[in-house]
Amino acid sequence: MKNVLRTIRDAAVQQQRRKRASRLGAAFFPPNYVFFDRLGPDSVVVDVGCGHEAELSEHLITTRGVQAFGVDPTRKHAPHLQALEARTDGRFTHLPVAVAAERGTLTFHESVENESGSLLTSHANVTADEIRTYEVETLTLADLAECVGGTADLLKLDLEGAEYALLDGVTGTDLDPFDQVLVEFHHHCVPDRTAEDTHRLTERLKGFGMRTFEISHRDVLFYR
């Protein structure tokens, strides 16, 4: 019975999100992706923290023909992402790096059981699970923009808690190459961050001239 109720509740949440996005004139793709649908074969999508399925990238390649870059340093995801590269005829490129406030290397904590690991030792998936640790290359947003050709129509950031350090130091110039930025905030997974931190960063990015649409209290689309 609990599983049935959960399924009904989840379906209702998805329907509510779809309606809210539609009222804004935006597109919604489950479970938590929203974007203005001005994407086509000439568009570039940068899917940071794409996971092993890279479902947003694959959906936009299939339905809009975009060029997608899946950014994820998780070693166990690499074979799946390489397979996606092979079956999308060059429309998907895997970049096995992390995005951070500074260029260099950092220690990544890969969760054995959960799909998502983190750069942070305090993330719930890291503290509650067996982990593998290794060094990964990090790129800044400016580096990332250069890697994908200078600009991108949609940037998704799913950094499992590392988004706070990144966005605390971001500038308007760093964001200029990106037309839309979809951020998944993780104050629910990282004990030293709160919903107030998420609100503060949302206001900070609005100060750079970006407008916002909050699909949930954790998922925010910034757009121009």
What can you see in these coordinates?
It is a single chain. The protein has 224 residues and is α/β, with parallel strands linked by helices. It has one domain: Rossmann fold. It has eight helices and twelve strands. Strand 1 and strand 2 form a beta hairpin. The chain is globular, with a radius of gyration of 17 Å. The termini are far apart.
Summarize the SSE layout with pairings:
Blueprint: H1 2-24, E1 27-29, E2 33-35, E3 44-48, H2 55-64, E4 67-71, H3 78-87, E5 92-95, E6 98-99, E7 104-111, H4 124-127, E8 131-139, H5 141-147, E9 154-157, H6 163-168, H7 172-175, E10 180-184, H8 195-206, E11 211-214, E12 219-223
Parallel strand pairs: 3-4, 3-9, 4-5, 6-8, 9-10
Antiparallel strand pairs: 1-2, 7-8, 10-12, 11-12
Unreliable residue stretches: none
Q: Which radius of gyration do the C-alpha atoms yield?
A: 17 Å
User: Number of DSSP strands?
Assistant: 12
SSE order: HEEEHEHEEEHEHEHHEHEE
CATH superfamily: Vaccinia Virus protein VP39
Secondary structure: helix percent: 25-40%
- The fraction of residues in strands falls at 25-35%
SS element count, helices: 8
CATH class: Alpha Beta
Structural class: alpha/beta
Strand line-up of the largest beta sheet: 5-4-3-9-10-12-11
How many distinct folded domains? 1
CATH architecture: 3-Layer(aba) Sandwich
